[in-house]
TrEMBL record:
Protein name: AhpD family alkylhydroperoxidase
Residue segments, region Disordered: 1-30
A Pfam match: CMD
Keywords (A to Z) from UniProt: Oxidoreductase, Peroxidase
Organism: Janibacter alkaliphilus
Domain Carboxymuconolactone decarboxylase-like: 39-120
GO MF annotations, alphabetized: peroxiredoxin activity
């Protein structure tokens, strides 16, 4: 087995990537650098990410949305990243542990619940379009700009998940800035 050195996206800075070394683990494909050969696409994704964050206007909701979509998509790299970012931002471990069961946990605000419901509906759009009720609740809770930012944030994290999964970004290597 040999170690490989790769880069992973820094979703906060379009001009930076994070370098990591990971052992070549049997059964797990080696990471593929898809960002280096496509720097313009990478920078565009980072700009989209920042625009979505600015549009949502609430960092906790923004990060909860990214973590929940990543859980649904099975993106280990992004689950690791966004859970660490939430913890570094002061989120409680209890809220992270219960995120997968947010409907049963009274510790989420109305806005967080509306955002999480919309996240699940948009992330699983192949199973059916978001219901009118889910959209109506999100539109009632968020103003027009924040709702639009939320939809863009959901679309963006779904794209990041697909990039991280297909590039085999190593789970556990991310460290918050």
């Amino acid at each position: 087995m040999t170690d490989t050195t790769q880069t992973a996206p820094d979703q906060t800075n379009p001009d930076q990537t994070t370098r990591y070394t990971t052992p070549d683990t049997s059964g797990i494909p080696a990471p593929v650098d898809i960002y280096g050969p496509q720097p313009a696409a990478y920078r565009a994704m980072v700009r989209l990410e920042q625009a979505a964050r600015d549009g949502v206007g609430d960092d906790t909701i923004f990060e909860l949305v990214k973590l929940r979509a990543s859980q649904i998509n099975g993106c280990g790299y992004c689950v690791d990243m966004h859970s660490k970012d939430l913890l570094a931002g002061g989120e409680t471990p209890q809220r992270l542990v219960l995120l997968d069961a947010w409907r049963e946990a009274p510790i989420y605000t109305r806005a967080e619940r509306a955002a999480l419901a919309l996240t699940e509906a948009v992330t699983t759009v192949a199973d059916g379009h978001p219901s009118a009720e889910v959209e109506a609740e999100a539109r009632e809770v968020f103003d027009e700009g924040a709702y639009a930012g939320l939809v863009v944030a959901i679309a963006t994290i779904n794209a990041w998940n697909r990039l991280a999964i297909t590039s085999h970004a190593p789970v556990g290597s991310y460290q918050p800035a």
